[in-house]
Amino acid sequence: MIKRRLSISGEDNSILDFNPYCCCSCFSVHALTTKTLTLLFLIPLPRDLIMIDEILKVLEKYSSSSEIKFMDIRMESIEYTELTIENGKVENLENNGERGVGVRVLINGWGFASTNDLTKIEEIVKTAIKMAKVSRISTSVYTRDPIEDNVEVKQGIKLKDIDLEEKVKLGVEVNNMLKRENIKTRKFSYSDIIVKKLYLSSEGSIIESTVPRVYLSISSVAKFSGKMQTYWKSFGGTGGWEIVEKIDFEHWANFVSKKAVSLLSARSPPSGEMQVIMDPELAGVFIHEALGHASEADAVKQEESILAGMLGKRIAVEELTVVDDPTLPGKFGSYIYDDEGIPGKRVEIIRDGVLVNYLNDRETSSLLNLEPNGHGRAQSYSHVPLVRMSNTYIEPGDWRFEEILDEVKFGVYMIGDKGGQVDVASGNFMFAAKEGYLVENGEIKGHLRDVALSGNILSALREIKAIGNDLKIEFPGFCGKGQWVPVDDGGPHVLTKAIVGGLE
Question: Which residues form the signal peptide (predicted)?
Fold first, then answer.
């Protein structure tokens, strides 16, 4: 056992233990306490066990059967770091790795199986075939000419070149920057991940891809006289440590804590239907949640979406165009190929107010007779791909923010996303903002807390009066739909009409 002391700011915070003799096929670091961390490197699998040729032999052996309509194998290897620092203490530090493979087979319906033991690939292929034979849900799948490619998202500064000490040191420094009077809880969260994927299909596709991602967030909780308010800011993208180096942490730490304290004295919002200005973050979440999920073709196919049967119909004002684009460089939701070996494509969901596309995967593009657009995504090798968004946003318009303000006689300017819910079948939604401001006769007035808006997506899209020229797509997060996948969203400032109320 080799031991190494990790020193941060002159203090001994942890002991790293290295064990070179474990027989498992992954490696990990776990925080046992805020003072002691155990680093356990486990021997990786021999390279000859994960050669493409070996997997190809298994694929060719079984997919040649006439009863198999389609088959694909996804192998995935990940390495990641997670770090959480709260009030100056390391609460969590994890450096983990995992490898595994998932097999999907279509006979009458789908069969799927996965394992983290790469010596059992043939075994899980047999399991997936058995499941596909007994599946009672008949379906079809889009097939295409084979693709052979090896792609990688480049890192300006490689994540592996930044050691744990530097990441923890940064976290402690940023956490201290959040200090302010009445701030009771300060949190810094960091994660990075390098995902290497190998995709093989019965069509003959062989696609290797490497995508590194970084995600950070800082938050402050302010308390005074029995009141409590929280504010936070998130950052992220595809790439390397250069993503971190571009962040002005001092500015954002001051911004976040100042906002949390200011909200303690903010007023409750007015209630009723009124004009609402959504900032770029809230506009992005609004379009992701209320429209994006309704445009996913699996919901459309099952007639669980308000947008079912509406292709080619006008559903919004002519000035509105909504896009989902996984090809945007550096964004958190970006990828080159989806998890079904289809190139990710820029998709206009709404063009000039008309619904022109659904997001789809191999299955839904076949069933709905749509051009495939590469939106079949899976959380990991052990999950089946589903129709998912990537980077979803509202295209900019011509309005300056000052011009939008001038349009508001009485309303609310809502900033940021604090969560919400949407019923994609009815289109009804409710979103809470991080903060708001009263707007009267074009002027921003008092600070508002716990402000929410609700309405119906189609009504809100038709009530849009102005779309700003200040597009921002810089609000990374993780979208849940039974599985978590990285996404980004955004837009410009948008003026519409909705029902406003408080959360109390």
Answer: none
